[in-house]
Amino acid sequence: EDKVVQSPLSLVVHEGDTVTLNCSYEVTNFRSLLWYKQEKKAPTFLFMLTSSGIEKKSGRLSSILDKKELFSILNITATQTGDSAIYLCAAEAIIQGAQKLVFGQGTRLTINP
Amino acid sequence: DTGVSQNPRHKITKRGQNVTFRCDPISEHNRLYWYRQTLGQGPEFLTYFQNEAQLEKSRLLSDRFSAERPKGSFSTLEIQRTEQGDSAMYLCASSPRQGGSSYNSPLHFGNGTRLTVT
User: Which residues on A lie below 8 Å from B95 (Cβ)?
Assistant: First the structure.
């Protein structure tokens, strides 16, 4: 059965700290790994990772994929209170033409001032 | 706002009633997805449309659930004889078809419809 596991499930840090969120996956027909940020509404897209070892960066956020070990990490440096959210990892499989996402439970990140 | 639009935002219903949700995808997106998210969990795949054709349904989608996309644009998700276990956030997402078998565009999610069954 396809599964995605995120850790930790919850993390509380102080503003300015650096955090690393983990995601491991076992998905057949795997194509890519996606990270989303979810506050109170829709998950908003952060990164799509298709190749191993190539870091993607967007401001203070960065992510990398290891297709051999089947995991990905999301790093956030110099955290701010606005980074507080649930971070979702999803493994994408292409099945009958559909981009099917298998999500992890999410990591609830809380940044205290 | 040209994002994915879902209505209503919230729905409270009594057990046994039928409910229908609507999703308007981004206009040029021909792929449309329904996901369900319960508290403390990530979204779970329910069903997928390419244009008007429903190509895949999860086993999570019981006989009480039906989804349509009659003209290949907006989609509706109906739940008949609702149960308390149906309480969840129902998310719609869309993505474009980019020629051939390219899947380089991520899914774009709507804000969801939060269903509460009392």
Answer: 99
Per-residue model confidence as pLDDT tens digits over A87-112:
999 999 887 777 789 999 999 999 99
User: In what helix (H) or strand (E) does residue A11 lie, and over which residues does it extend?
Assistant: strand A10-14
Q: Parallel, antiparallel, or unpaired: how do β-strands A10-14 and A107-112 relate?
A: parallel
When CB atoms are compared, the residue of A42, A97, A105 closest to B55 is A97
Beta-carbon separation of A100 and B91 below 8 A: no
Q: Given a cut of 80, is residue B98 above it in pLDDT? A: no
A58 in contact with chain B, both atoms CB, cutoff 8 A: no
**Do the Cβ atoms of A45 and B111 come within 8 Å?**
no
One-letter amino acid of B54: Q
Q: Average pLDDT of chain B?
A: 90
**Residues with Cβ < 8 Å from A86, sequence gap 6 or more?**
A37, A38, A39, A106, A107, A108, A109
Number of alpha carbons in the 13 Å side-chain half-sphere of residue A82: 3
At A68, the amino acid letter reads K
- Given a cut of 90, is residue B61 above it in pLDDT? no
Q: In terms of Cα–Cα distance, which of B86, B58, B67, B63 is closest to B20?
A: B67
Which of residues 69 through 108 in chain A touch B, CB cutoff 8 A?
A: 88, 90, 92, 94-106
